[in-house]
Amino acid sequence: MKKPNIVVLGAGYGGIMTTVKLQKSLGRNEANITLVNKNDYHYQTTWLHEVSAGTVHQDQARIAIKDVVNQHKVNFVQDTVVEIKPEENKVKLENGELDYDYLVIGLGFEPATFGIPGLEENAFMINDINSSRLIREHLDYNFAQYHNEKEKNPARLNIVVGGGGFTGIEYVGELANRVPELCKEYDIDKSQVRIINLEGAPTVLPGFDPELVEYAMNSLEARGVEFITGAILKESKPESVVYEKDGKLVEIPTLTTVWAAGVKANSIVEKSGFENNRGKVQVRDDMRAPEYDNVFVIGDCALIMNEESGRPFPPTAQIAIQQSATVAHNVAALAKGHSELESFEYKPLGTLASLGHNDGMGVVFGNKKLFGWKATFMKKMSDNRYLLKLGGIGLVLKKGKFNFFY
Amino acid sequence: MKKPNIVVLGAGYGGIMTTVKLQKSLGRNEANITLVNKNDYHYQTTWLHEVSAGTVHQDQARIAIKDVVNQHKVNFVQDTVVEIKPEENKVKLENGELDYDYLVIGLGFEPATFGIPGLEENAFMINDINSSRLIREHLDYNFAQYHNEKEKNPARLNIVVGGGGFTGIEYVGELANRVPELCKEYDIDKSQVRIINLEGAPTVLPGFDPELVEYAMNSLEARGVEFITGAILKESKPESVVYEKDGKLVEIPTLTTVWAAGVKANSIVEKSGFENNRGKVQVRDDMRAPEYDNVFVIGDCALIMNEESGRPFPPTAQIAIQQSATVAHNVAALAKGHSELESFEYKPLGTLASLGHNDGMGVVFGNKKLFGWKATFMKKMSDNRYLLKLGGIGLVLKKGKFNFFY
Question: What is the CATH number of the domain that holds B92?
Answer without folding.
Answer: 3.50.50.100
